[in-house]
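Pinned message: reference record for Protoporphyrinogen IX oxidase
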Amino acid sequence: MPWLKLLHIAALVIWCGSLLYLPALLSQALQLRKDSGFAQGTPPIPRFFYNSVATPAALVSIASGTLLFLVYGILGGWLIIKLGSVVAMVAAHGCFGWLILRVEKGHYRWIKAANWAALCVALAGILSVLIFVLAKPLDWS
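Predicted structure (tokens):
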């Protein structure tokens, strides 16, 4: 079953990279919308990237992580804390989706601040997942 762990790590790397790239895409889309003198549609790349890369990677990462937990019977205090960090990453992911919708609808108020806040939550989640997986404090096995 090493392929399952490889799948989990690969999907997690893609998802984490997506969470770091989405704020840049949002900022660029927001700047394009504000600079245009006419009402034009937002470039479709933020929504495409979110729907085609970030969300499938998140789903594969979470599903393969759940299978790893069930197949190998991994349990420890570090895993419970790591799952809390994954919740932070999921919250940031959802916030980026909401921000993409707001930019597409032309609601620009608080987009930059929310974009930065979601990036900070994503970074905190990514770093804490990395720390808890590598350090494995509270190992109950």
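Pinned by admin. Summary line: The chain has one domain: 2-34+42-135.
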